[in-house]
C-alpha cells in the first residue's frame, strides 16, 4: 500500500537526507576540511534496498582506499611532469573502467572508486605535492564517513531488505515460469501469448540474479540459503530452452498430424500438474515414466516424425523434472529444514555462480572514452593554467566512469550537465543569501532540507536520476559546505564554470567515442552467441551445458531492454537466441556421444561439426544467412546412419542431439521426402 502512494520513495528520500546530514555532522566534528564529500558519497551510495547499500558500501570503501593509495604513489613521482601525471591517471582510470565494465557484480564498484578517487585526490594536490598523504587521508576519511553513514541509516531505519524483495520475486517468477510452460504445451495458445511469457520469464531471471548478488551482504536468515538460491536460479535458466524445445516439437508433430493420442493425453496431464501448485494429481515421477514409455524404439532406420517425438518426450520429461525441483527449492527458500528429494539436493550441491556475458569491445570503448576525457581535460587545464581546472577534470572523469556501462551514455551525461547547471542556480542563493545567516547545525539542516530532499526525490525517478547525480556532485561544494564558510564569489564562479565545463567535456567524449546505439549493441549480443557456437564445435571443447545456458540467458536479459528501447518487436531476436541456446545444448550432447562413438560415427560427426562451424562463422561475418544445404545433408546423413553398432542409450543420445540440431539450425528446410519414406518403411 505504501508503495502504491509513493511511501517507499518518500522514505528513501528522507533516509538519504538523514544519512547525508549525519555524515556531514561527523565530518565537521572531527575537523575535515572538505566535509561536502561525505554528503556527496552518502547520496551516491544510497539505494532503496538495505543489502544493496551494504554491498556497494564495502566495495566502494575498498576502492576508495586503493584510489587514495594510487594518488599517493603517482603524485610524488610525476608531480613535476604534469603531462606524464595526466597520462598515468588517465590510463589508471581507463583500466579501472575497463575492469568494472567486465565485472557486472557489486565488485565493479571497487574498480570504479579506485579509478576516480585517484583523480579526486591527485588533481587538486598537484600544486601542493608535499601534502599529498594528508590530502589522500582526508578524502578517504570523508568518503568513508559518507559510506558508513549511508550504510548505518539505510540498514537500521525502516530497512527494505533484499530478502523480502527476493522472496516476492521468486514467488512471482515461479508463477510466470509455470504459466509459460503450460502455454507452451497447450495447442490453443497463440505465438503472441507464449512469446510474451517467454520475454517476461527471461527478464524475471535477469532481475533475480541482480537481486541475488546483494544477498550475501544482508544480515537475514535468507542470506544463509545462498546455495539454494543459486540452485533455483540454475533450474529456472533450464526452463526456457526446455519449454521452447517442447513447444517447437509439439507444433511440428501437430501440423503433420503425427502426435499419438497417448502423448496428447500426457501433455494434458502435465498441464494439469503444472496447474496444481500443491502437488495434486499425478506425481512428477509418474509423468516422467509415462514420457519414457511413450518414446519410440531407437532402432535403425529411424523416421523423422519418430525422431521429433523422441526429442519432444525427452525434453518434456526433463521439463517436468526441473519444475519439480524448482517447487522444492522455492519451498526451501520460504521455510526452514524441509526434507528435499535427492534431485533437489544434487541441484544444490552442483549449483555454481552464474556465468555472465562479457563484451570486451564495449568495455574497451568505455575505457577509451574515460581516458580520453581525462587527457583532454588535463591538457586544457595545463594550457590555460586555470586554478579551478582540477574541478572540471574531476567531474568529467566521474561522469564518464559512472555512465560508461550504457550503450549510448551521452544523453545521460547531458542530463548530468543539466543537473550541474541546476545546482549552480540553486547553490548561488544558498551560498550568498541563506547560509551566511545560519549560526547552528539544526538550523543548517532545516535550510538544507528543501534542496537535498528534492535531489533525493529525483534519484528515485528513473527519468531524473542522471540529473540528480549532476546536482549532488556539484551542489554541496558550490553551497560552500566546507569546514568553514568563505563566501567568496570569485571562488564560487570559478568552481561553477569548471564543473559545468567538466560535465560538458564528458558529454562530448562519450558521444564521440562511447556511443554505440541499442541496435548495434543488440547485434553484438547475437554475434557473440554465433561466435561461441562456432567455438563449441571444436572436439577439444569440454561440454558445460549449464554454463552455456546461463551465458545465453544473460544475453537475453541484456537484449530485451535494448529492443524495447528501439521500439521493435522482440519476438524474432528472442527466438533466435533461444534457438542458439538449444543448438549449444545439442553440440554438448554430440561431444558426449563422441566419447564412446565408433570410428565411423566419429567421421560422420566430424563432417556435421565442420559444417556447423562454417555456418556460424558465416553468420558472425554477415549477420544473417540461410543454412548451407551441405550442412542440412550432413545432419540428415548422420541421422540415418549414426549409432548402428553402439548401445541403445548412446544411439538415443545421438538421435536427440542431431534432431535438435536440425530443428534449430534449419527449421524451415523440409526433410528429403524419399529418404524419410525409406526410413519409415524400414522401421
From TrEMBL:
User: Short name of one Pfam family for this protein?
Assistant: FUSC
UniProtKB keywords:
Cell membrane, Membrane, Transmembrane, Transmembrane helix, Transport
Q: Where in the cell is it found?
A: Cell membrane
Membrane topology, as annotated, equals: Multi-pass membrane protein
GO terms for molecular function, please? transmembrane transporter activity
The protein's predominant localisation is: membrane
Q: Which residues cross the membrane?
A: 12-30, 61-78, 84-102, 109-126, 138-159, 362-382, 388-404, 416-435, 441-460, 467-485, 491-510
Where is it found, in Gene Ontology cellular component terms?
A: plasma membrane
- Name of the protein in question: Putative membrane protein YccC
Amino acid at each position: 500500500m505504501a508503495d502504491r502512494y509513493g511511501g517507499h520513495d518518500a522514505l528513501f528520500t528522507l533516509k538519504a537526507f538523514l544519512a547525508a546530514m549525519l555524515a556531514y555532522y561527523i565530518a565537521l566534528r572531527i575537523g575535515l576540511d572538505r566535509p561536502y564529500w561525505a554528503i556527496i558519497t552518502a547520496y551516491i551510495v544510497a539505494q532503496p534496498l538495505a543489502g544493496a547499500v551494504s554491498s556497494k558500501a564495502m566495495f566502494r570503501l575498498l576502492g576508495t582506499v586503493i584510489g587514495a593509495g594510487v594518488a599517493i604513489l603517482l603524485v610524488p613521482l610525476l608531480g613535476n611532469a604534469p603531462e606524464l601525471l595526466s597520462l598515468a591517471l588517465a590510463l589508471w582510470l581507463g583500466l579501472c573502467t575497463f575492469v568494472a565494465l567486465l565485472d557486472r557484480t557489486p565488485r565493479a564498484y571497487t574498480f570504479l572508486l579506485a579509478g576516480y578517487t585517484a583523480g579526486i585526490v591527485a588533481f587538486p594536490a598537484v600544486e601542493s605535492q608535499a601534502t599529498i598523504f594528508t590530502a589522500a587521508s582526508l578524502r578517504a576519511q570523508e568518503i568513508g564517513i559518507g559510506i558508513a553513514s549511508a550504510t548505518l541509516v539505510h540498514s537500521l531505519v525502516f530497512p527494505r531488505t533484499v530478502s523480502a524483495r527476493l522472496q516476492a520475486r521468486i514467488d512471482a517468477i515461479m508463477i510466470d515460469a509455470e504459466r509459460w510452460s503450460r502455454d507452451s504445451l497447450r495447442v490453443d495458445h497463440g505465438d503472441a501469448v507464449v512469446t510474451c511469457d517467454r520475454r517476461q520469464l527471461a527478464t524475471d531471471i535477469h532481475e533475480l540474479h541482480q537481486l541475488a548478488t546483494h544477498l550475501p551482504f544482508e544480515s537475514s536468515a535468507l542470506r544463509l540459503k545462498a546455495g539454494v538460491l543459486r540452485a533455483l536460479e540454475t533450474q529456472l535458466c533450464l526452463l526456457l530452452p526446455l519449454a521452447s524445445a517442447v513447444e517447437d516439437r509439439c507444433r511440428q508433430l501437430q501440423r503433420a498430424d503425427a502426435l499419438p493420442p497417448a502423448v496428447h493425453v500426457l501433455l494434458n496431464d502435465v498441464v494439469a500438474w503444472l496447474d496444481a501448485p500443491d502437488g495434486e494429481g499425478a506425481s512428477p515421477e509418474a509423468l516422467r515414466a509415462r514420457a519414457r514409455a511413450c518414446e519410440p524404439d531407437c532402432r535403425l532406420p529411424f523416421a523423422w516424425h519418430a525422431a521429433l517425438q523422441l526429442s519432444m518426450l525427452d525434453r518434456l520429461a526433463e521439463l517436468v523434472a526441473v519444475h519439480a525441483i524448482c517447487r522444492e527449492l522455492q519451498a526451501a527458500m520460504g521455510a526452514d529444514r524441509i526434507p528435499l528429494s535427492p534431485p533437489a539436493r544434487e541441484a544444490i550441491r552442483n549449483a555454481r555462480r552464474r556465468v555472465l556475458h562479457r563484451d570486451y569491445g564495449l568495455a574497451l570503448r568505455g575505457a577509451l572514452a574515460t581516458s580520453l576525457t581525462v587527457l583532454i581535460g588535463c591538457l586544457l587545464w595545463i594550457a590555460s593554467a586555470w586554478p579551478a581546472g582540477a574541478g572540471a577534470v574531476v567531474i568529467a572523469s566521474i561522469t564518464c566512469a559512472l555512465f560508461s556501462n550504457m550503450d549510448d551514455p551521452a544523453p545521460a551525461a547531458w542530463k548530468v550537465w543539466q543537473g550541474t547547471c541546476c545546482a549552480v542556480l540553486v547553490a548561488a542563493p544558498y551560498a550568498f543569501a541563506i547560509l551566511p545567516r545560519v549560526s547552528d547545525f539544526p538550523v543548517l539542516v532545516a535550510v538544507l532540507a528543501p534542496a537535498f530532499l528534492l535531489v533525493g526525490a529525483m534519484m528515485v525517478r528513473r527519468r531524473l536520476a542522471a540529473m540528480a547525480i549532476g546536482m549532488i556532485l556539484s551542489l554541496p561544494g558550490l553551497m560552500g559546505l566546507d569546514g568553514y564558510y568563505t563566501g567568496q564569489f570569485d571562488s564560487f564562479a570559478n568552481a561553477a564554470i569548471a564543473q559545468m565545463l567538466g560535465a560538458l567535456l564528458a558529454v562530448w567524449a562519450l558521444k564521440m567515442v562511447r556511443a554505440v546505439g541499442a541496435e548495434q549493441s543488440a547485434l553484438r549480443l547475437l554475434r557473440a552467441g554465433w561466435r561461441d557456437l562456432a567455438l563449441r564445435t571444436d572436439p577439444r571443447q569440454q561440454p558445460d551445458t549449464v554454463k552455456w545456458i546461463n551465458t545465453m540467458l544473460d544475453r537475453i536479459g541484456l537484449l530485451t531492454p535494448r529492443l524495447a528501447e528501439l521500439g521493435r518487436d522482440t519476438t524474432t531476436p528472442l527466438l533466435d537466441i533461444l534457438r542458439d541456446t538449444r543448438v549449444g545444448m545439442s553440440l554438448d550432447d554430440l561431444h558426449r556421444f563422441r566419447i564412446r562413438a565408433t570410428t565411423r560415427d566419429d567421421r560422420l560427426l566430424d563432417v556435421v561439426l565442420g559444417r556447423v562451424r562454417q555456418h556460424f562463422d558465416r553468420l558472425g561475418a554477415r549477420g544473417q544467412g540461410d543454412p548451407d544445404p551441405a550442412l542440412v545433408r550432413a545432419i540428415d546423413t548422420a541421422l540415418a546412419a549414426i549409432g548402428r553398432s553402439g548401445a541403445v542409450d548412446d544411439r538415443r543420445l545421438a538421435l536427440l542431439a542431431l534432431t535438435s540440431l536440425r530443428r534449430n539450425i534449419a527449421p524451415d528446410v523440409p526433410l528429403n521426402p524419399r529418404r524419410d519414406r525409406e526410413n519409415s518403411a524400414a522401421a
